[in-house]
Amino acid sequence: xxxxxSSSQTTLPYAVDKFHEVSLRLSYRIGRAAEAHTIGEKLVKxxxxxxxxxxxxxxxxxxxxIIPLSDNTVNRRIRDISSWLEEKVCSEIKxxxxxxxxxxxxxxxxxxxxxxxxxxxxxxxxxxEELLICKPLLSNATGEAIFxxxxxxxxxxxxxxxxxxxxxxxxxxxNRLDAEPDMRLQLSGNTPNFAEILSGCQIHPSH
Length: 207
Hints:
By secondary structure, this protein is α+β, with helices and mostly antiparallel strands.
């Protein structure tokens, strides 16, 4: 079986990493659009294959079928991109001459207390606003509990836009969503470096 797999891989016109890069880019767009992660396998990939069947030969159609876009894969890709964006923001904050936080606490559809923190900082002579924290408050929403999550920062402004994104994402698509990775993609003004993210990813089979 390993021999057959190796043989089939050598016939591919693109490097395997290219398929994972396409998967990464499509997952990014799914996250930015706040769509359910299942849309990759249920709609995006079938549309790509259908278009390919009408435009290209069968060998090229087969290439589209290889693109990994399962629910688990899209979720993993979004988390990879979110982690990269978080590291980029933290590195830029360290270089900023000044920064401020937008902090607020609210409850989600399940009644859980959620802390949302956006950060404003200066990078390359421009003011940036990025998601810093979106975490459940496991204890009562006391000042001490909030301080434990943002002890390295100070708090100032309200976060209406961030909460509207959180509520829309939580309500519309997944009742048990860890919303932070999706929200970071939706709210970020940074463009991911896909090649850098892909170089740090451990390649998994789509499942």
